[in-house]
Amino acid sequence: MIETVRIVGARGRVGSAVSARLAARGVDLAAPDPGLVLLCVPDRAIAEVARETPVGPWIAHVSGATPLAALDPHERRFGLHPLQSFSKARGPEQFDGVWGAVTAESDEGRVVARALAELLGVRPFDLEDDGRAAYHAGAAIAASYLVTLRSAARALFETAGAPAEALDPLIRGVMDTGFELTGPIARGDWETVERHLAVIRAERPELEELYLVLAAETARIAGRDPAEVPA
Questions:
Q1: pLDDT, tens only, 62-82
Q2: pTM score, two decimals?
Q3: Which terminus of the chain, N or C, has less C-beta within 10 A?
Q4: Helices 190-203/132-160 angle, 10° precision
């Protein structure tokens, strides 16, 4: 169904991986009249690039946050957002095993979007346009905030004189065991939590608010009253 694609932004983090995967699957990326124009550009540039693209072929973007209205004036349009954090240091294997959010305004659009997902090796699921904000917020927490949490944990390890790189197998272990909740809050060990807060206030006070917010939410997940978290 998808034989020719023009990728706008083919040298970017997502675009380079898309280009490599589609080329490996036999898709013509240099056809003068492509059946699909795929925008792998920053969100802020999508609307401008769409306006400059001649109407006719299918057009799509790979943004998780941008509504389809950004692709005006095109009517043959859809979005496919691969739920992955891409790096130019890696290749098309970044698509393997990941999910992709499909947003389309017609059955035909969904068929084309799912065909593209199959070519990329992405497992598609439907996402309504009005659900994008909540969806993208969840994705940002899972991706960006994980980096933030690792940075905070590294700061405390450095304070303790412990090797920060020792955290990475721990993080991978949590993922490998299905994110099973463990630790002092799950056990209701509030004395340990108090010791955490004491050292954070003394050594890394900038992390106290973050710790307290996370502790309250972790208590809720554990089925405990967040008010039990030491103030």
A1: 999 999 999 999 999 999 999
A2: 0.89
A3: C
A4: 80
